[in-house]
């Protein structure tokens, strides 16, 4: 199937029931748009069934040059929902997208329930569900394995719940990256709860760029009841995020992070540092609370490395230690 655009406003609720496998053309230029299915300016949309949207992305992944270019070419997504309200996607599978599987922009009261994302670990920039400038988005009972973030939350994300999600392989569940652009909007009220993360490059993460113009706030973050299984960097605030060395760390991040709850995190870490809180020296993190964090590395307790933050500790939590050297 080539690109399909459903554009509202619609006069009544619409339900799309899909049980077939829908395949995208292999080459991005043959799709006819940036997505297989795009829905704009609609209300009360339901997409349900056992259907599979197959982006056939392996050809496009070989063309991905984002590791070499600061601004790289968009290769195509399986789904885009732009300014869609009071809607739900239930039971559908997104497979092998050329780039992001799902992009959610400007939506309100939008839910994914029983959704599935599948792509190999080496599929670059294939974020499972990317959310931006949206309020009241729920990602529930969902299984995501891909080559980038399982769920990524961009600027303007507010009142988002990610609950009972299985993540892995991939890069974990991330807020950000943030601060790259001056005109970004604040992030507020994100809850990641009752999730299991396995074999990923990160667990739960907040990432912001140094030496970039963005000055938004990130507040009221909650990471709770999460099980890690052989996860690198299980809990990380990285305010020196600089992928592929495409930036300088000369100036600290201007993004203010506050009111972060890290609670009931258990399991195994693939790195000695189970917790990394690398906050900005320009605007240190405030209101960070950690309680009941039990992470093991090779059978021994993982450590916490903290800079520019003084977290409140309750229960069993590894004590903060200073970084031994600058994070690369």
UniProtKB/TrEMBL annotation:
Q: Which GO terms describe its molecular function?
A: polygalacturonase activity
Q: Which InterPro entries match?
A: Glyco_hydro_28, PbH1, Pectin_lyas_fold, Pectin_lyase_fold/virulence
Q: Which UniProt keywords apply?
A: Cell wall, Cell wall biogenesis/degradation, Glycosidase, Hydrolase, Secreted
- Annotated active site: 171
GO-annotated biological processes = carbohydrate metabolic process; cell wall organization
This chain's protein is named Polygalacturonase
Name the SMART domains on file.
Answer: PbH1
Q: Which subcellular locations apply to this protein?
A: Secreted, Cell wall
Its main localization is secreted
Q: Which SUPFAM superfamilies match?
A: Pectin lyase-like
């Amino acid at each position: 199937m080539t690109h399909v655009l459903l554009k509202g406003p619609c006069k009544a609720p619409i339900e799309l029931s899909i049980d077939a496998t829908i395949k995208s053309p292999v080459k991005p230029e043959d799709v006819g748009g940036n997505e297989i299915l795009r829905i704009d300016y609609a209300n009360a949309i339901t997409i349900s069934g056992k259907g599979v949207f197959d982006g056939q992305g392996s050809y496009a992944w070989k063309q991905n040059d984002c590791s070499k270019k600061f601004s790289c070419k968009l290769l195509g997504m399986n789904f885009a929902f732009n300014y869609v309200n009071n809607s739900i996607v239930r039971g559908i599978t997104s497979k092998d997208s050329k780039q992001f599987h799902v992009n959610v922009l400007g939506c309100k009261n939008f839910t994914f329930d029983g959704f599935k994302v599948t792509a190999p670990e080496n599929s670059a920039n294939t974020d499972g569900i990317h959310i931006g400038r949206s309020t009241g988005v729920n990602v529930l009972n969902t299984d995501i394995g891909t080559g980038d973030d399982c769920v990524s939350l961009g600027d303007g994300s507010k009142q988002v719940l990610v609950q009972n999600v299985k993540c892995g392989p991939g890069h974990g569940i991330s807020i950000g990256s943030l601060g790259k652009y001056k005109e970004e909007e604040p992030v507020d009220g994100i809850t990641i709860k009752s999730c299991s993360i396995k074999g990923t490059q990160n667990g739960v993460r907040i990432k912001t760029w140094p030496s970039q113009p963005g000055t938004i706030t990130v507040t009221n973050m909650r990471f709770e009841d999460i099980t890690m299984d052989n996860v690198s960097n299980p809990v990380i605030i990285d305010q020196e995020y600089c992928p592929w060395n495409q930036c300088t760390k000369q100036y600290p991040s201007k993004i203010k992070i506050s009111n972060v709850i890290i609670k009931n995190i258990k399991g195994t870490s693939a790195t000695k540092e189970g917790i990394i809180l690398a906050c900005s020296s320009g605007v240190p993190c405030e209101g960070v609370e950690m309680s009941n964090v039990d992470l093991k590395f090779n059978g021994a307790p993982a450590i916490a490395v903290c800079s520019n933050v003084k977290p409140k500790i309750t229960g069993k939590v590894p004590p903060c230690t200073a970084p031994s050297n600058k994070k690369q």
